[in-house]
Automatic annotation (TrEMBL):
GO MF term set: hydrolase activity
One annotated GO biological process: 'de novo' IMP biosynthetic process
Recorded superkingdom: Bacteria
PANTHER family recorded: PHOSPHORIBOSYLAMINOIMIDAZOLE CARBOXYLASE-RELATED, SLL1489 PROTEIN
One family name in Pfam for this protein: AIRC
Protein known as: 1-(5-phosphoribosyl)-5-amino-4-imidazole-carboxyl ate carboxylase
Organism of this sequence: Sellimonas catena
Domain called PurE: residue spans: 119-251
Length: 254
């Protein structure tokens, strides 16, 4: 049982008599996770949360990643996200695993498949150096079924660049603001729009930025209402949260 649709079909088959209740119970018992010894794959994640389990690639061997991905693929999971994975690791994965790799975001999508996209999320960056983190957020949101608009290098050092995209900002259901240095972008955007803003501090900046701590504290102290903050360089977390917010708004197409 890899998604809500599968469980619903199983329940309907019990209702119409084509499946015995005992057999249905057995399938549900066997479904929650698969034990690979080094990993216990949560196969009910998509039922509970609407998306398959995400694989954090850092610290895992190519063999471990391949084993997890293949087990999920065999159970029908598609668009499996592998975050923080290096090109070197990806090169060692078997050719039998269909894979789209995005080196700038250090993110791979296994068993990629077309799917419906809804709503609109804007991902904006203060500078070009913030793009790798922003791409992690944007790709995560896209894989989870959202329309994403990218506005890159629109930081406060040239405010007119941001203001030229007011239509995009004001038509978004959620905005991810990615910035290093002093992290002012999130506050500025938060003062312009009526949708939630997710601030992502990045480790971009000179010595006194303390590897992103300065941007993190600035964003936490934002005077603009409606801003939330994720951890330093956590593009994935921002993209996932933005997807949740966007898809709460309804299923209508843009």
């Amino acid at each position: 049982m890899d998604n809500k649709y599968d469980i619903l079909q199983l329940l309907r088959s019990v209702a119409d008599g084509t499946t015995e209740p005992e057999q249905a119970l057995l399938q549900l018992k066997e479904a929650p996770f698969e034990d690979l010894d080094y990993a216990k794959i949560d196969l009910h994640r998509s039922v509970r949360q609407g998306a398959a389990e995400v694989i954090y690639g850092a610290g895992k061997t190519p063999e471990q990643i391949a084993g997890i991905v293949q087990a999920m693929g065999n159970r029908g999971c598609r668009n499996i996200l592998i975050t923080r994975v290096s090109q070197e690791t990806v090169n060692q994965l078997p050719d039998s695993i269909p894979l789209d790799y995005h080196a700038d975001a250090r993110l791979a999508i296994a068993y990629p498949a077309e799917h419906k996209k809804r709503g609109r999320i804007v991902v904006a960056t203060g500078g070009t150096s913030d793009i790798p983190v922003a791409e992690e957020a944007a790709l995560t949101a896209e894989v989870l079924g959202n329309h994403v608009v990218r506005l890159y290098d629109v930081g406060v050092a040239g405010l007119h660049r941001l203001l030229s995209h007011l239509d995009d900002l004001m038509s978004a259901r959620c905005i991810v603001a990615v910035a290093g240095m002093e992290g002012a972008l999130a506050s500025v955007i938060g003062g312009l729009v009526d949708c939630p803003v997710i601030a992502v501090p990045t480790s971009v900046g000179y010595g006194a930025s303390f590897g992103g701590l300065s941007a993190l504290l600035s964003m936490l102290n934002s005077c603009a209402s409606g801003c939330s903050v994720v951890n330093i360089d956590n593009g994935f977390g921002a993209g996932y949260l933005a997807s949740r917010i966007n898809q709460m708004e309804g299923l209508e197409e843009e």
